[in-house]
Amino acid sequence: MFSRGAAVLVYQPQWGQVRNMATLKDITRRLKSIKNIQKITKSMKMVAAAKYARAERELKPARVYGVGALALYEKAEIKVPEDKKKHLIIGVSSDRGLCGAIHTSVAKAIKTEISTLSDAGKDVMVVGVGDKLRGLLQRTHNKHFLVTFKEVGRKPPSFGDASVVALELLNSGYEFDEGSVIYNRFRSVISYKTDEKPFYSLDTVSGAESISIYDDIDADVLRNYQEFTLANILFYSLKESTTSEQSARMTAMDNASKNASEIIDKLTLTFNRTRQAVITKELIEIISGAAAL
Questions:
Q1: Residue 275 to residues 34, 77, 112, 188: CA-CA distances in angstroms?
Q2: Is the pTM of this model over 0.90?
Q3: pLDDT per residue as tens digits for the range 13-64
Q4: Would you say 195 and 185 are in contact if contact means Cβ atoms under 8 Å apart?
Q5: H or E segment and range at residue 91
Q6: H-assigned helices in 120-218
Q7: Is 21 helix (H, G, I), strand (E, B) or coil?
Q8: What are phi and psi for residue 72, nearest 5 degrees?
Q9: Within the chain, how many helices (H) and strands (E) appear?
Q10: Distance (Å, whole) CA 75 – CA 118
């Protein structure tokens, strides 16, 4: 047993003390990795800039499809009856990342829409165009997903792609009453806005009160127009989303390259200071040894 007041000596060896200053080898290794990352971000910026230029050229004629598709809905003043409860949300995203908050903004808008419509007593289902959207919503809203389309964003979207999505929706067996397409609308190189466009089912359009003013529209014509309108809206939203994505990726890679340059400058300064300290220490040791002799 130890007696009270006994002093206990603790020996701390010198080799247990760890130096906080990074070695030259560690700094060199990190500098090399940051420079390699900067090369990748600069290359991705150049690729995104080329894709953005093409997407912007193709966006202007595609906007005609979106404006024309909604003309009948606006003129006929189509309204969904209160007893209709089925709502379909189409979220337009892509499979690729490294483009800022492009996918997050669409996912956030869909979450808000699901919450609002569910509180109103409506049955809400979601169609995801792009795998990133499903990854963001799968954990919290997996039960609302009807179908997900992948392989989006690798190539510029075409009207054929929009037609495939529209055909799969119409043949899915889910009879919706109304719906909305949520996408990112391109505004400028550094700006985009999450927007929403409505679409309606054939029964909702044919049951509208103002549709009777169009005497020459029969059931077949109205069905074809409704299917064509859905494909047009999807094509327009895909073009807008692609342009917004490429511009956001170009901006994100530019910011990443600038951040890498700042880190490289700081690491270079640290490397020079550390090297100078090592050289100074060695000179002091040489001079001290020579003086001792």
A1: 19, 75, 55, 47
A2: no
A3: 443 333 435 688 899 999 999 999 999 999 999 999 999 999 999 999 998 8
A4: yes
A5: strand 86-92
A6: 131-141, 159-170, 202-206
A7: coil
A8: -65, -40
A9: 7, 5
A10: 29
